[in-house]
C-alpha cells in the first residue's frame, strides 16, 4: 500500500481525527526524507502571549498544524500556524516554515512581520502517487532557505522558475486571463487603452507581426470571447478575430514579464518581507509600479502598457504567485536575468520575425571590454533589448572608476547611470533593461548607499528617427533651430510629437511635466513666466496639444509615456563616446514600407546600396549601424 492510499483509507474511517493525520505525516517524513524520530516533536506547548499547542515541529524549523477538514477549519489553522512560527522565530530560527494540512490539502506559510504569507500550496487526490506527494512536499519544504544558502539568480535559473508550462507561469497566466476578461466587462477602457496602442506599435514597426499573432492563436482559446469583444468595438476593422486573439496571448505574456520585473525590483528595494507587507497593504501599487516610484526607483512609468492588472479584482494574487519562486534565490544579481526567460516566453520564430536576436554573453563581454577603456566614457546601446550590453557596460565602467566598484557611493552610482543609455522600440524590452540596470546597481552598492532617486536611462524610442529628416525643414529641426514636429512615431503614426532639439533630455522631460500639470488642470494654454524663452513656451504648448490628441485616440492613459520617450533621440545627437550593441536583423523584404524607405535613404547616403538583384536581402542591421553615427561626438 502506498502512503497516499493509506491516507485515503485513514480518512474513510468514521472515527479518524487530526491526530491520525499527524501520525501519518510522521511516517511520510521518515520514509521520504529519512527524518529521524528524534527530530520530530509532537504536541509542542507554546507558552507566553501566543499560547497554544503545535501538532508537529520538525527539526526545530518547520511547524505543522493538522486538521480533519482544512477547508472548514482554515481560520483556526492559521491562528495556530502564526503562533507556531512566532515560537520558532523566538527560539532563533530565521526562516521557519508553517504548514496547515489535512493530508489532502496543503498550505505553506512564512511570517512577514505579524502577517502570514502563503508561498506554496498543493492538493492531493486518490489518483496522486507517492512520487508526486514527495516532490510537491519537498518543493514547499525547500522553497525557503536562509539568504546565505540561496543561489544567486541567473538567466538560466530564472528561466527555469518562470518558464511557460511551469506552475508560476500557468497560474499567473490564468489570473491574467481572468483579470483581462473582468476588465473588458466592467472597465473596458482600462484594458483596451493599453492593448490597442501596444498592438499598433508592433504592427507599425514589424511587417509580419499580424502573421505572428496568427501563429499564437492556438494558445489563446480561452481569450476568444475577449478577442470577439475587441473585434466588435470597430477599432480593428482590417484585423481578424483570430489575429486579435493571438495578439492578446502575446500581450499577456509581455505583461507577465513586466510584472516579474517590477517584483524583482521591489524585492531588491525593500526585501522579501517588505514586499509581502506592501502586498497585504496595497498590491495594486506593486503591479502598477507606483510602489517602486515611491521608493525612488523608476523602472516603469505611470500608465505604461503593462499597468492594467492593477485595476483588476485580485492584484495581490498575481504578486503572491510570482513572489513564491523568488524566495529560492538570493538578491545577488550579476546577470541579465531575463535573457533566457524572454526567449522562452516569446518563441524564437516571433523574435526573429521582429528582428530580435540575443547576443551570446561571451561576445557581449568581449565587445564591452574592447570598446570601454575608461570610466568616463558615455555609452549608448541603440537597440538594447533586455539590457545585456548595458549591464556589462555599467559593471565595466564601475570597475574602471577610481578605486573600482568597491569605492562607489551614491553620487558615483548616479553618474554611472547618467552615462549608460539605451533605446528600444519594444516597450517590454525597456522595462526589462531598466530592471536589469537597477538590479546590477544593487549588487554594486549596499541598499543603504543607493541613490535616493534611480532613473535608468533606457527609453522606448525609435533610433532611426534621425535618419528620416530628409528635407530642409527637417534638417533645420535636427540641427536644433527652433520647435519642430516629429511625426510618425511607432505608437502615434497619425499624431504630431513636438521636439525642441536645443534642450537636454532632462529639460525636455521637465517641459513634459509642466504640460502634464496644465493638462490635468484642463488648461487650454500655458502662459509664459518671467524669463521663459519664446521657443520654450511654444514647445510646452505644442506638448499640451499633443496630449489632447493622444487622449482623443487612446483615452487618458498613455500620453505622458509617449511624450517622455519618443522625442528623445533628436536631443542626443553627438552625445556619446561609444555606441555598442546588436542591431535588429531584418532583411529589406521583411521591413515595413517606412523602414524600407529609411534603409534606402541611408544606403544611398553612405554609398552602400546593393545591386538591384539582391536588394530584398539587404539587411536593416547595416543601415541601423550607419544611422547610429548621428549619436557619436
Distance between the termini: 76 Å
Number of strands: 12
- Which blocks of ≥5 consecutive residues have pLDDT under 50? 470-474
Alpha-carbon Rg, integer: 28 Å
Task: Please state the structural category.
Answer: alpha/beta
Morphology: elongated
Instruction: Please report which band the strand proportion falls in: under 5%, 5-15%, 15-25%, 25-35%, 35-45% or over 45%.
Output: 5-15%
The residue fraction in helices comes out at 40-55%
Main pleated sheet: 6 strands, mixed
- The mean pLDDT is 82
Number of distinct helices: 26
Strand order of the largest sheet: 1-2-3-4-5-6
How many individual domains? 4
Question: How does this model look, in words?
Answer:
By secondary structure, the chain is α/β, with parallel strands linked by helices. The chain has 4 domains: 3-144, tt1808, chain A (Alpha-Beta Complex), CATH 3.90.1570.30; 167-326, no CATH class; 364-370 and 382-461, no CATH class; 463-566, no CATH class. The protein contains 26 helices and 12 strands.
Features:
elongated, four-stranded parallel β-sheet, alpha/beta, single chain, 4 domains, tt1808, chain A
Detail the topology: elements first, then pairings.
Elements: H1 3-12, H2 18-33, E1 40-46, E2 52-58, E3 62-66, H3 70-90, E4 97-101, E5 105-112, E6 115-123, H4 130-142, H5 155-162, H6 167-186, H7 188-205, H8 209-216, H9 224-232, H10 241-270, H11 272-281, H12 283-288, H13 290-294, H14 315-326, H15 339-345, H16 348-353, H17 361-371, E7 379-381, H18 388-400, H19 410-418, E8 420-424, H20 427-444, E9 457-460, H21 472-478, E10 484-486, E11 497-499, H22 505-520, H23 534-554, H24 559-565, E12 578-579, H25 593-605, H26 620-627
Parallel strand pairs: 3-4, 7-8, 7-12, 8-9
Antiparallel strand pairs: 1-2, 2-3, 4-5, 5-6, 10-11
Helix pairs in contact: 1-2, 5-15, 6-7, 6-14, 8-10, 9-10, 10-11, 10-14, 10-20, 11-14, 17-18, 18-20, 22-23, 25-26
Amino acid at each position: 500500500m502506498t502512503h497516499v492510499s493509506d491516507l485515503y483509507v485513514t480518512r474513510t474511517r468514521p472515527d479518524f481525527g487530526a491526530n491520525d493525520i499527524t501520525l501519518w505525516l510522521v511516517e511520510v517524513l521518515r520514509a521520504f526524507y529519512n527524518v529521524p524520530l528524534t527530530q520530530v516533536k509532537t504536541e509542542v506547548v507554546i507558552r507566553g502571549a501566543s499560547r497554544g499547542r503545535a501538532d508537529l515541529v520538525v527539526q526545530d524549523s518547520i511547524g505543522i498544524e493538522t486538521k480533519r477538514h482544512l477547508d472548514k477549519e482554515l481560520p483556526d489553522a492559521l491562528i495556530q500556524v502564526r503562533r507556531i512560527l512566532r515560537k520558532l522565530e523566538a527560539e532563533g530560527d530565521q526562516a521557519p516554515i508553517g504548514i496547515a494540512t489535512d493530508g489532502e490539502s496543503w498550505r505553506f506559510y512564512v511570517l512577514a512581520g505579524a502577517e502570514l504569507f502563503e508561498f506554496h500550496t498543493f492538493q492531493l487526490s486518490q489518483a496522486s502517487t507517492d512520487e508526486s506527494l514527495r516532490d510537491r512536499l519537498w518543493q514547499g519544504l525547500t522553497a525557503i532557505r536562509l539568504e546565505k544558502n540561496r543561489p544567486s539568480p541567473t538567466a538560466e535559473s530564472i528561466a527555469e522558475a518562470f518558464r511557460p508550462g511551469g506552475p508560476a507561469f500557468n497560474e499567473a497566466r490564468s489570473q491574467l486571463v481572468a483579470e483581462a476578461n473582468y476588465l473588458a466587462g466592467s472597465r473596458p477602457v482600462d484594458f483596451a487603452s493599453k492593448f490597442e496602442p501596444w498592438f499598433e506599435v508592433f504592427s507599425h514597426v514589424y511587417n509580419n507581426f499580424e502573421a505572428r499573432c496568427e501563429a499564437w492563436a492556438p494558445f489563446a482559446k480561452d481569450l476568444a470571447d475577449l478577442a470577439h469583444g475587441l473585434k466588435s468595438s470597430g477599432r480593428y476593422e482590417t484585423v481578424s478575430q483570430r489575429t486579435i486573439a493571438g495578439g492578446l496571448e502575446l500581450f499577456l505574456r509581455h505583461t507577465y514579464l513586466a510584472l516579474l520585473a517590477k517584483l524583482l525590483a521591489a524585492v531588491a528595494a525593500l526585501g522579501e518581507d517588505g514586499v509581502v507587507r506592501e502586498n497585504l497593504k496595497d498590491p495594486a501599487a506593486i503591479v502598477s509600479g507606483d510602489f517602486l516610484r515611491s521608493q525612488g526607483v523608476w523602472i516603469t512609468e505611470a500608465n505604461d502598457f503593462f499597468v492594467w492588472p492593477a485595476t483588476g479584482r485580485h492584484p495581490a494574487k498575481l504578486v503572491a504567485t510570482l513572489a513564491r519562486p523568488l524566495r529560492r534565490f538570493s538578491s545577488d544579481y550579476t546577470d541579465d536575468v531575463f535573457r533566457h526567460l524572454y526567449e522562452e516566453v516569446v518563441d524564437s520564430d516571433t523574435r526573429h520575425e521582429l528582428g530580435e536576436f540575443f547576443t551570446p554573453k561571451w561576445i557581449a563581454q568581449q565587445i564591452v571590454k574592447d570598446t570601454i577603456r575608461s570610466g568616463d566614457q558615455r555609452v549608448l546601446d541603440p537597440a538594447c533589448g533586455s539590457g545585456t550590453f548595458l549591464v556589462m557596460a555599467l559593471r565595466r565602467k564601475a570597475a574602471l572608476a577610481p578605486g573600482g566598484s568597491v569605492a562607489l557611493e551614491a553620487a558615483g552610482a548616479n553618474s554611472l547611470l547618467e552615462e549608460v543609455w539605451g533605446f528600444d522600440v519594444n516597450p517590454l524590452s525597456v522595462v526589462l533593461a531598466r530592471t536589469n540596470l537597477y538590479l546590477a546597481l544593487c549588487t554594486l552598492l549596499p541598499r543603504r548607499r543607493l541613490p535616493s532617486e534611480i532613473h535608468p536611462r533606457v527609453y522606448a524610442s525609435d533610433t532611426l528617427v534621425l535618419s528620416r529628416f530628409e528635407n530642409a525643414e527637417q534638417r533645420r529641426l535636427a540641427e536644433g533651430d527652433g520647435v519642430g514636429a516629429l511625426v510618425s512615431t511607432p505608437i502615434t503614426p497619425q499624431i504630431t510629437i513636438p521636439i525642441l532639439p536645443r534642450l537636454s533630455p532632462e529639460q525636455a522631460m521637465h517641459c513634459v511635466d509642466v504640460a502634464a500639470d496644465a493638462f490635468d488642470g484642463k488648461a487650454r494654454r500655458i502662459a509664459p513666466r518671467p524669463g521663459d524663452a519664446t521657443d520654450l513656451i511654444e514647445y510646452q504648448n505644442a506638448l499640451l496639444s499633443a496630449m489632447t490628441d493622444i487622449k482623443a485616440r487612446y483615452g487618458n492613459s498613455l500620453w505622458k509615456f509617449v511624450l517622455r520617450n519618443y522625442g528623445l533621440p533628436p536631443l542626443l545627437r553627438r552625445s556619446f563616446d561609444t555606441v555598442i550593441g546588436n542591431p535588429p536583423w531584418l532583411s529589406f523584404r521583411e521591413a515595413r514600407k517606412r523602414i524600407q524607405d529609411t534603409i534606402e535613404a541611408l544606403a544611398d547616403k553612405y554609398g552602400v546600396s546593393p545591386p538591384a538583384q539582391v536588394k530584398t536581402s539587404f539587411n536593416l542591421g547595416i543601415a541601423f549601424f550607419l544611422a547610429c553615427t548621428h549619436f557619436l561626438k
